[in-house]
């Protein structure tokens, strides 16, 4: 099963290291991401790999997003700090596919709900993506979603 794309990468542009690590983690952990989940406590390396795989799964498989989040809740050992640092996509956000941006905002909402360590940095990162005086659909959509998130 091939992992779905997160961004549109031009043919001659090098692939982003974060994107590559997420995809590789997802491909290597695909069997671990489907129920029934292991009850064993993962090693630190395995934990990081699972966090990357879960993030890629949530971003590219919206139909399994709730399952992936439940899996994340079950394995978290660091207050979501590892997962939240993966959400900081300052330089990558403009290249994200629309469906991935939608999932990223949903995931940010989920992270805020559990008060994941560093969720404020994710919100600031997303606020920095808003372009002043830009009335394009994408920019207005991001503004609207963030306002909704802050009001909840």
TrEMBL record:
Signal peptide: none annotated. It comes from the Eukaryota. GO terms for cellular component: cytoplasm. Residues 46-152 form the Integrator complex subunit 3 N-terminal domain. It holds the Pfam family Ints3_N. This is Integrator complex subunit 3 N-terminal domain-containing protein. It comes from Vigna angularis var. angularis.
């Amino acid at each position: 099963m091939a992992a779905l794309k997160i961004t549109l990468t031009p043919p001659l542009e090098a692939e982003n290291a974060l994107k590559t690590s997420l995809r590789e983690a997802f491909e290597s952990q695909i069997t671990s991401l489907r129920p029934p989940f292991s009850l064993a406590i993962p090693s630190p390396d395995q934990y990081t790999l699972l966090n990357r795989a879960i993030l890629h799964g949530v971003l590219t498989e919206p139909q399994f997003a709730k399952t992936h989040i439940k899996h994340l809740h079950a394995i978290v050992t660091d207050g979501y700090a590892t997962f939240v640092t993966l959400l900081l996509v300052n330089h990558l956000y403009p290249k994200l596919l629309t469906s991935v941006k939608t999932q990223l905002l949903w995931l940010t909402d989920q992270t805020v709900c559990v008060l994941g360590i560093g969720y404020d940095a994710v919100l600031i990162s997303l606020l920095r993506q808003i372009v002043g005086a830009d009335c394009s659909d994408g920019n207005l959509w991001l503004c609207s979603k963030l306002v909704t998130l802050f009001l909840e």
